[in-house]
Design a protein that fits this description.
- Helix 2 packs parallel to helix 4.
- This protein has a 6-stranded mixed beta sheet. A 6-stranded mixed beta sheet has the order 6-7-8-9-10-11, covered by helices on one side.
- The C terminus is likely disordered.
- The chain is an alpha+beta fold.
- The chain is 17% helix and 32% strand.
Length: 497
């Protein structure tokens, strides 16, 4: 027998063992955390005071991590800014930062805490993961020294990064991601010079990670899915809800569906800043979610997901987003068109004046087609069909194509597009489509009370967003939210920021 033949049974046995270890499903957890905030001061506090505040937050997070592990969760995501909050200048954030090494160093901070200098936060997070045999995802601050040999080096001689870290079930640092798309006001942090596409492998799929505002842009979010082929996205966020399209639960679940991946979204909880809404989202809809503007409590969510959603029999079909819309004649344009503003964007609206019918509204190259039937046409509620095809320029610049059926706050048409949280009209049927120029479209259905509708709608392969049965709750909005990345303005020189 040749040596290679002798090895064959052992190789086959090893492969079988690996397959047995690999899971088809896994239990995911996210924790929405009501962050204990520092006092908003301009000057740095002593390092001991900074660590004391971070430990108070980590005490809460540790309780959630232990509970998730006891319920069998394999991985838990905690929010952006979840350990120290957000009230900082560049100077006052410094005592909260640690030097976070490249995961290639093969480091378990829990068992070797001083290898890279003082790292009490990384040590504690690592021990939480190790002691509970669970992957832990957290958001902390990284500091990296630089000098005059680097023309981009800040005046104080260091870079500060808004950073996600992942520790595996042994407590080893397996991922580090520096946030690329900083939101307005994050002046305490620098942009990394290049966007980082951070991935890591687990027995339950390939994971990628990015943070909050990143989800609205091509890099790194879309790159992780389209090019790196991740199964699941980890998404720490500090998301301020903006109706009608950009509430956390609504947009993050739509992104999971539009991209065909799992998303584990952990939001901070601060009702005074409209921050709430976390969830565990599959390509077919939300497995579980939470939206709570009534109390200031944190909330743990746990749900089962497919480890490889693209391979799942339930995986949605590939969608040609404009196929149906381009194939039909324009429906009647009823002469009731008017302009309304949503989040500073001028939409073209047409009122739905009848209990049912077929309506088209167009703006530039985007025509939106709607077929609908209300369960009852109420005199005290107005719905419109709207279209927007243009560059959004408020709180960031990005190109949008949006088709939306939405409720107006009152019967006064000048209010259409303004936020509204409650409705009374159910729909027996809706079918929404658009002549999109982009293949990146995110389907949203939002019910009265800012609630999702998992399992109640689907996207057909020809691009129609349809309901399966009469809506179980009254409708706030039904939206196809398109992002045309190629039409975004050139990125600023982020390295110099």
């Amino acid at each position: 027998m040749l040596p290679s033949q002798a090895l064959l049974p052992a190789v086959l046995f090893a492969l079988a063992a690996l397959r047995a270890l690999a899971s088809d499903t896994f239990l995911a957890a996210v924790y929405e955390h009501a962050v204990i905030l520092p006092h908003p001061i301009q000057e740095p506090v002593p390092a001991s005071d900074a660590l004391a505040l971070m430990n108070r937050n980590m005490d809460v997070l540790e309780g959630a991590i232990k509970e998730a592990a006891q319920q069998g969760a394999h991985i838990i995501v905690t929010p952006e800014d979840g350990i120290y909050g957000w009230r900082f200048t560049r100077e006052s954030i410094y005592p909260y930062l640690e030097d976070i090494p490249d995961p290639a160093v093969d480091w378990i901070p829990c068992t070797d805490p001083s290898r890279f200098g003082p790292a009490p936060v990384q040590e504690r997070l690592s021990c939480m993961a190790r002691n509970n045999s669970i992957y832990v995802v957290a958001n902390i601050g990284d500091k990296k020294p630089c000098d005059s040999s680097d023309p981009s080096c800040p005046r104080d001689g260091r870079y500060h990064y808004n950073t996600d870290v992942v520790f595996d079930a042994q407590g080893k640092l397996v991922a580090r991601y520096h946030k690329y798309n900083l939101f307005l006001g994050e002046n305490q942090f620098n942009y990394p010079k290049e966007p980082e596409a951070v991935t890591f492998e687990t027995p339950f799929g390939k994971f990628g990670i990015f943070t909050c505002f990143d989800i609205l842009f091509y890099e790194p979010a879309v790159v992780l899915v389209d090019k790196m082929q991740v199964d699941t996205v980890l998404f720490p966020t500090a998301w301020m809800n903006v109706l009608p399209f950009l509430t956390a639960i609504e947009f993050h679940s739509a992104w999971a569906m539009g991209m065909g991946v799992n998303v584990l979204a952990a939001n901070t909880h601060n009702t005074s800043m409209e921050m709430t809404g976390s969830g565990i989202y599959a390509p077919t809809g939300a497995r579980t979610y939470s939206y709570n503007m009534k109390t200031e409590d944190g909330h743990l969510l746990i749900a089962e997901l497919d480890a490889h959603p693209r391979l799942s029999p339930a995986s949605p079909p590939t969608v040609s987003w404009n196929s149906y819309a381009l194939s039909v004649e324009r429906f009647s344009q009823n002469g009731h068109e008017f302009t309304g503003i949503i989040f500073e964007d001028p939409f073209t609206f047409t009122e739905l004046t009848k209990p049912g019918g077929n309506v088209t509204v167009c703006q530039k190259d985007l025509c939106c087609h709607l077929s609908y039937k209300m369960a009852e046409k109420r005199d005290d509620e107005v719905y419109v069909l709207g279209a927007f095809d243009g560059l959004h320029v408020f709180e960031g610049q990005y190109y949008l194509q949006i088709c939306t059926l939405l409720k107006c706050p009152s019967t006064n048409l000048s209010t259409c597009g303004q936020p509204v949280e409650m409705a009374q009209t159910k729909f027996e049927m809706f079918s929404l489509s658009g002549t999109f120029g982009t293949s990146y479209v995110f389907p949203e259905v939002l019910y009265s009370g800012v609630q999702l509708a998992p399992g109640e709608f689907e996207v057909l392969a020809d691009g129609r967003l349809i309901n399966r049965n009469t809506t179980s709750k009254p409708v706030l909005s039904v939206t196809l939210f398109g992002r045309w990345y190629e039409k975004d303005p050139p990125s600023m020189d982020q390295a110099s920021a």
